[in-house]
């Protein structure tokens, strides 16, 4: 069986890496292809996991629209399908890379395995374009590897056959455990220029969702300025490279002595920040999955989340991007931190990659799917 594993963004590498490494350990020799949808942050992650793609489409261009990126992915991946003739293509999550490559594989009648299948908000523009991306992939995929029972239930309710769904947990927990065991805390703190002992508490902030561009980022900055009035509080904000986000954040926050604006951090640094903070404010999906491992509360600056399990367990709170909502919950949590000691991470135990590869090794398919 020949496997082609495709990815284009930082989160995809983080979540595909355990599968790639498990396949390599079993000498299955997967072929790796990146679209380069997120160039700098993607390369950073490849280095962390020591992964070297066999193909790099290098498609990302400044100011590129989703439609032009999609067209370039269709064109680039088709020639690779022709050269490699894979039996199975693996895609992860809900990116433009994952959606377009799944469609291109369908056109060639190649089996598609969808990692992290079944996440839903059922709000077509929240998140955009991810919600529709993942719904489209679900109509195409041969096998659906779900992270939670809720995700499995979503697919079953949509008419996906039970035998095509495999509940595995989320591979991000596999990556998290790999990285956590190798953290060099002193080196990371020095590299980031952070001295946590100078502050009573730390807030970690991230923001990158398209639906929060513009007004949403402005509201986030307003809340951070208010929180920064407490000089015993350190606010650490690794700023996304999107020019619109970066410009707004730097313009409003760079003068505050206890707000540290960092360039995008690598994965070990992000894991260290999550493990050492007292509160996270973020619109990231991955952080909602990672934070429960370290018993950290997350204020999710979105109106909807596809990770409802974290909300139901109490780890995450939906605030939207409204600054007053963010502030009211932040002040409360900083004053009276929640106790998560007896709760488990609802997104898995760190063995998802093994379960996925175990399943794939048992499959037998023809080159031309019927």
From TrEMBL:
<dbReference type="GO" id="GO:0008761">
    <property type="term" value="F:UDP-N-acetylglucosamine 2-epimerase activity"/>
</dbReference>
<feature type="domain" description="UDP-N-acetylglucosamine 2-epimerase">
    <location>
        <begin position="25"/>
        <end position="361"/>
    </location>
</feature>
<dbReference type="InterPro" id="IPR003331">
    <property type="entry name" value="UDP_GlcNAc_Epimerase_2_dom"/>
</dbReference>
<dbReference type="InterPro" id="IPR029767">
    <property type="entry name" value="WecB-like"/>
</dbReference>
<comment type="similarity">
    <text>Belongs to the UDP-N-acetylglucosamine 2-epimerase family.</text>
</comment>
<keyword id="KW-0413">Isomerase</keyword>
<protein>
    <recommendedName>
        <fullName>UDP-N-acetylglucosamine 2-epimerase (non-hydrolyzing)</fullName>
        <ecNumber>5.1.3.14</ecNumber>
    </recommendedName>
</protein>
<dbReference type="Pfam" id="PF02350">
    <property type="entry name" value="Epimerase_2"/>
</dbReference>
């Amino acid at each position: 069986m020949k496997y082609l594993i495709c990815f284009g963004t930082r989160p995809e590498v983080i979540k595909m890496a355990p599968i790639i490494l498990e396949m390599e350990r079993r000498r299955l020799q997967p072929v790796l292809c990146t679209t380069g949808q997120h160039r700098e942050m993607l390369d950073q992650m490849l280095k962390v996991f020591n992964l070297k793609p066999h193909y790099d489409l290098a498609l990302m261009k400044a100011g590129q629209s989703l439609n032009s990126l999609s067209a370039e992915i269709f064109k680039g991946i088709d020639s690779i399908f022709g050269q490699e003739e894979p039996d199975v293509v693996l895609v992860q999550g809900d990116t433009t890379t994952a959606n377009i490559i799944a469609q291109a594989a369908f056109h060639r009648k190649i089996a598609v395995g969808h990692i992290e299948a079944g996440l839903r908000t059922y709000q077509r523009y929240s998140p955009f374009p991810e919600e529709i991306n993942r719904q489209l992939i679900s109509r195409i995929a041969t096998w659906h590897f779900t992270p939670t029972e809720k995700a499995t239930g979503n697919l079953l309710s949509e008419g996906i056959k039970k035998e095509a769904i495999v509940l595995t947990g989320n591979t991000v927990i596999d990556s998290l455990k790999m990285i956590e065991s190798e953290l060099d805390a002193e080196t990371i703190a020095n590299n980031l220029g952070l001295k946590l002992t100078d502050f009573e508490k730390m807030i970690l902030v991230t923001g990158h969702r398209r639906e929060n561009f513009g007004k949403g980022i402005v509201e986030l900055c307003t809340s951070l300025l208010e929180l920064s009035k407490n000089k015993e509080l350190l606010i650490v904000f690794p700023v996304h490279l999107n020019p619109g986000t970066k410009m707004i954040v730097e313009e409003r926050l760079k003068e505050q002595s206890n707000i540290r604006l960092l360039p995008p951090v690598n994965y070990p640094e992000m894991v260290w920040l999550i493990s050492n903070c007292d509160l996270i404010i973020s619109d990231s999906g991955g952080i909602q999955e990672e934070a429960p491992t370290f018993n950290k509360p997350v204020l999710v600056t979105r109106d909807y989340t596809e990770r409802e399990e974290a909300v139901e367990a109490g780890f995450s709170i939906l605030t939207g991007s409204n600054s007053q909502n963010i502030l009211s919950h932040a002040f409360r949590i900083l004053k009276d931190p929640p106790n998560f000691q007896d709760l488990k991470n609802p997104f898995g135990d760190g063995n998802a990659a093994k379960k996925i590869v175990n399943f794939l090794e048992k499959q037998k398919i023809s080159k031309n799917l019927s």
